[in-house]
Specification:
22% helix; two-stranded antiparallel ribbon
Length: 139
């Protein structure tokens, strides 16, 4: 994961809920500048366990998962066709639950992932959009 850190918008430790057993496991997560979100078993791993293409993500939001605090989910559209044929077995949306160590970290991850989704799904990201609220307060 080390080489990806240079290309990262944000990198650090989150807890990820496993799909099958619903167990929370510590993971090293990287949100890259090219709008990919990877996670690794540890910071030293070279190959990610999984990746979310934020271009296909439909959102990120706070959501309590299994009574755990500081949790949020990333939702993403699935590939509905394989080699041009419909894939009836695939759910329309995948849900990826994560948990941060505290509320401040959760908010930081929500901002970074949200901004990455917006920039990946729009043709132009306008840096001034972060400052619109400031200008409205001045007027």
């Amino acid at each position: 994961a080390g080489s990806l850190d240079k290309e990262a918008t944000k990198a650090g430790t989150l807890y990820r809920q496993s799909a099958l057993l619903r167990v929370w496991k510590e993971r090293y997560v990287v949100v890259s500048k090219d709008s990919l979100m990877y996670w690794y078993g540890s910071k030293d791993d070279l190959v990610p366990e999984d990746v979310i293409y934020l271009k296909k993500a439909t959102g990120v939001r706070r959501e309590e998962v299994a009574g755990r605090s500081n949790t949020f989910i990333v939702t993403s559209k699935n590939v509905e066709k394989i080699l041009g044929f419909p894939n009836p077995l695939a759910p329309k949306v995948s849900i990826y639950p994560f948990s941060a160590t505290d509320a401040e970290q959760m908010e930081s991850w929500l901002r970074v992932i949200g901004k990455a989704i917006v920039s990946a799904t729009t043709t132009e990201w306008d840096e001034t959009s972060d400052r619109i609220a400031e200008h409205q307060q001045d007027g």
